[in-house]
Amino acid sequence: MGNNIKKGALYVVATPIGNLEDITLRAIRVLKEVEIIAAEDTRRTRKLLGAYQISTPMTSLYDRIEDRKSSVLISKMHDGMDVAIVSDAGTPGISDPGYVLVSKAIAEGIEIIPVPGASAVVTALCVSGLPTDSFAFYGFLPSRSGKRKQFLSTLMDEAKTLVFYESPKRLIESLRDIGEVLGNRNVVVLREMTKVFEEIMRGTLGEVINQLQGRVVKGEVTLVIGRREKISSSFSDDEILAKFEDLWKSSGSSRRDIIEKLAKELGIPKKRVYRLVANYI
């Protein structure tokens, strides 16, 4: 006789990003009904389960063990067990464990069932007041200033609203680097969203940095950075070339640095400047 055991399913369950009331009725039901909950931090998740009288067994699934533990969980699903994955807060897989397990489960023919809910990215965007029709999320910025600036320089021509997570300890330093590389754009800093000490700061990068001076910032931080402002006046090829020649003769900077400076100051694509100054070595 063949094996007629029906495979279990993997439920990807979003949990609150702070306020425990921000959980769906469906999420509560699913967490009660599955055989096991794979949690990024069982201690954090235990508080949520206790608040809703959920007694389902848990197992750890954090970054360092996700690859190995995924095989164990998939084996259980093949044996007919339903599994739910949750992160510390928000939606699994978004700068949290989840991707490895989901991708491996898909490869094994396991049914993946989303149970949507809170997400810090979407929560921040919807109250930012910045354009939400197109945005790009990049997780946490690099922790070291040099690498952070190098990464930010790749976003100079990005026309979308930008969203990042950041450590409160690096917040002011990161805002300064963003201003230096991307210009004095509009920014929204959201701290401790949905929690008791929730705070939202809006303004230009310079204004928000001034608000933060002398403060000890604590808690979870999400940054929403406005798009590059379009320059209303247009620049002709001759004008751009003339500005480049002036900087080339007077600044002593490299061709690449001058191109990046011009593109940022004039609000034009770097590719256009590169094309115009191709003959300069």
Would you write up a description of this structure?
The protein is an alpha/beta fold and 281 residues long. It folds into 3 domains: 9-118, Tetrapyrrole methylase, N-terminal domain (Cobalt-precorrin-4 Transmethylase, domain 1), CATH 3.40.1010.10; 121-225, Tetrapyrrole methylase, C-terminal domain (Methyltransferase, Cobalt-precorrin-4 Transmethylase, Domain 2), CATH 3.30.950; 237-276, no CATH class. The chain is built from 11 helices and 10 strands. The protein has helices at 25-33, 42-51, 63-78, 99-107, 120-128, 145-153, 171-182, 205-212, 237-250, 255-266, 270-276; strands at residues 9-13, 36-39, 58-60, 83-86, 111-115, 135-140, 161-166, 186-191, 199-204, 221-225. The protein has a 5-stranded parallel sheet with strand order 3-2-4-1-5, with helices on both faces. A 5-stranded mixed sheet has the order 6-7-10-8-9. The longest helix has 16 residues, at 63-78. The model has no long low-confidence stretch (mean pLDDT 92).
How many alpha or pi helices? 11
| Multimerization state | single chain
CATH architecture of the largest domain: 3-Layer(aba) Sandwich
Q: Helix coverage percent of residues?
A: 40-55%
The mean pLDDT is: 92
